[in-house]
Amino acid sequence: MCKFLLLAPLILCLLGSCKDDQIRTYKVATDSTSENPSLPTADAAPPDNHATQSDTVVWQTPGDWKPEKAGQFLTAAYALPSGGRVTVSKLGGDGGGLAANINRWRGQLGFKPLPENEVTGQPLKIAESQAEMLLFNLTSETSADDAQGILAGVLPLKTETWYFKFSGPVGILKKSEGVFAGFLRSVRIAGSQKSTPAPAPSDVKKVNVTQPDGWSPSEGSTMRAASFSIAGPDGTSADVSVVPIPGDSGSVLDNVNRWRSQLKLSPLASVDDPAAGKKEECPAGEIFTSQMTSSEPIQNGKKASIASAILKRPGMTWFFKITGDATLVEANLGKFDTFVRSATFPE
Q1: Dist. CA 308–CA 340, nearest whole Å
Q2: What is the CATH number of the domain that holds 253?
């Protein structure tokens, strides 16, 4: 039997949202310090036909994003129809360090700082270059829709670091994360083979899966290829997502440790640790399955669990994930195993 755990990625995880003090990749309120360099917040809006260009980086914005006065420390700023705000900024060198910036944003949202070795983002390959952007989702799965959150992309280059940040209420971020992901996919390095970015693809890769009994289709987000909810007794629930992320999307260990962080579990040193999970063969190919449970109540006064399956296919990494009340997740592991094994991918 496969055992497993979003947004996914994130992109990302762009892929989903964080537990109370976790980092998610994928994964926003306007900062009171929004004129300081910050991570981008983004919506997955349809691309327009004009690109924004700086001396080193170009990107393409959706036609309904309204440019705003950037301010002293920002390269660009946009107001989204949804009410969120996207900012783009640049700092020299490493910008003061990845962990320092992520923990600063976490502090703005009321999250505790994380150790430097736990600050890892979901990688997103920048087309026509060797550069990779790191994606982060700083939201809480238990927050109300009007709570503040941040979705962001950090692009480190040789002499500078770029920050793309989407901030606003969590409810808005969830609805617009696909638009933001499309915006991030449009980013290009100026002077590469194509100096003007091509429009980001708006369609999510397709997957065919068999819906288990007791699972209900859910709206999910625009990043998901499939989304289901599971209702349990006493108001408990679990969320099931299938998210495709272009490229390798990070190592298995990076992703497992990201999920462990969401459950407030300590990171593992090696993917060979039995707690990380194991490789298995499924009809669609080799998958890495994992299942983990928080050691303390972190969701509505109860323990939470994450089960996942990571499937790497040419040019794409697929994340199958079930997360929620620990008892409910564990009761559905058999169905989740069958669900993952049912996946087929139409051309």
Answers
A1: 9
A2: 3.40.1000.10
Q: pLDDT tens digits, residue range 294-303?
A: 999 988 888 9
127 part of a folded domain: yes
CA nearest neighbour of 91 among 160, 34, 172: 160
**Per-residue tokens: 345:** 């991918």
Instruction: Give yes or no for residue 122 having a pLDDT over 50.
Output: yes
In angstroms, what CA-CA distances link 141 with 27, 69, 147, 174, 298? 10, 32, 10, 10, 11
How does strand 76-79 pair with strand 66-68? antiparallel
Domain assignment present for 27: no
Cβ atoms within 10 Å of 294's Cβ, excluding its own: 19
Judged against a pLDDT cut of 80, whether residue 72 lies above it is answered with no
CB 75 within 8 A of CB 89: yes
Report the domain count for the chain: 1
DSSP label of 107: H
DSSP line for 259-291 = HHHHTTPPPPS-TTSGGG-EEEEETTEEEEEEE
Burial (0-12, 13-18, 19+ Cβ within 10 Å), 144: exposed
Query: Does some domain include residue 19?
Result: no
Residue type, 292: M
- Is the residue at 239 inside a domain? yes
Domain coverage including residue 206: 47-341
Q: pLDDT tens-digit profile of 223-255?
A: 788 999 999 988 899 999 998 877 666 788 888
